[in-house]
Design goal:
The chain has 338 residues and is of the alpha/beta class. 38% of the residues lie in helices and 16% in strands. Strands 3-12-11-8-7-6-5-4 form an 8-stranded parallel beta sheet. A two-stranded antiparallel ribbon has the order 1-2. Strands 9-10 form a two-stranded antiparallel ribbon.
Length: 338
């Protein structure tokens, strides 16, 4: 079976790419991912807020020194350069992963401002990362902000970064755009090499006992992959040179196969690997090859996009028609789908 595919311009051995998670913090765990079939790895995210807060803390404690005496040059505290910050440690892990793995290593930047990313992206390129994933985790909570202004935030960041680094850039997006297809088309024109659909915005919960917000983390389910499946099927074959990655909800071989049939170049895995371990990659990979044998397919190209909007008899089923059909198929008298 030929499972090779192209992702962000990189030739990789199969379509399974673990997404950003704590698994890549350990070199040993990253090797396990590779041994079990990972075709590339996306490192855990480097958060802009964390780097900024650390820098501000260092400035406060090291640069604003009011203690000392005449014979102590520069005060009692050590110099800034004596410490490794979060970015330094992340860059070192990029180098270590590149030395330890034979598969591509993709760095992940999570932030919202150009100033927080441009210098970091240059450093990551210098450290040897094969590509960059930009996770623009932005909630448009300002009700005075327009849709075009939100889109321009993404596009301006991408254009500025594209002008600074030569690495392939993957945009990890949420579905919260009024015209998602057009936004992605603009991103491709601005220099994006791929998109990952979709980022899951973790929702805060409310404690009814404490009357306050509380963090909430709900692992994905297979049903979460259906939204990405729909949009990948709509986008497949319509934007030249743009890699389509599906993220969120890939737990079984069937989940991965559906996304490939819709037109995905790669499928990303996170929750399923965190709960079941790196060995789950082998299970999904075996399931894909077994299905291909049953169907008589010899390569991914034989079936990728076979159920995309360009290939199905009624493309409207990916839009409104299927919604109407599902509602019509419900029998209120029996209370079951028929």
């Amino acid at each position: 079976m030929d499972l090779t595919t192209k992702y962000l311009g990189l030739d990789i051995k199969n379509p399974l790419v673990p997404s950003a998670s704590p698994l890549t913090r350990s070199i040993a765990m990253a090797r396990e991912l590779e041994d079990n079939g990972a075709a590339a790895v996306i490192m855990w995210s480097l958060f802009e807020e964390a780097v900024t807060a650390e820098s501000e803390s260092m400035v406060r404690f090291l640069h604003h020194q009011d203690t000392g005496f005449g014979e102590a040059e520069g005060g009692f505290l050590p110099a800034w350069s004596d410490f490794d910050n979060g970015l330094d440690l992340y860059l070192e892990n990029v180098r270590r992963l590149k030395e330890s793995l034979a598969i591509p290593v993709i760095a992940s930047l999570n932030g919202v401002t150009p100033s927080g990313w441009i210098s970091a992206a240059k450093d990551l390129q210098q450290a040897g990362a094969d590509a960059l994933e930009l996770n623009v985790y932005y909630i448009a909570g300002d009700i005075g902000q327009t849709g075009p202004q939100v889109e321009d935030r993404y596009l301006s960041l991408l254009r500025e970064l594209r002008g600074q680094v030569a690495l392939p850039i993957n945009m990890k997006l949420s579905p919260a755009f009024s015209s998602l297809g057009n936004t992605i088309k603009q991103m491709a024109a601005a220099g994006a090499n791929g998109v990952a659909l979709f980022n899951r915005f973790y929702q805060p919960d409310i404690s009814i006992e404490g009357l306050r917000l509380q963090p909430s983390l709900q692992p994905s389910t297979s049903a979460d992959a259906l939204l990405a499946m729909r949009w990948i099927a709509i986008l497949y074959g319509r934007i030249d040179g743009l890699s389509l990655g599906a993220t969120g909800g890939v737990h079984t071989p069937e989940d991965a196969i559906k996304l490939l049939l819709a037109g995905a170049d790669v499928v990303h895995l996170c929750s399923s690997l965190l709960s079941r371990g790196p060995g789950h990659l082998s299970h999904i990979l075996s399931g894909i090859t077994e299905w291909m044998e049953e169907q008589g397919f010899e390569s991914l190209d034989d079936f990728r996009g076979r159920v995309s909007a360009l290939a199905v008899p009624n493309p409207a089923e990916f839009e409104r028609a299927n919604y109407v059909n599902v509602l019509d198929s419900f029998s209120f008298s029996a209370g079951v789908m028929v």
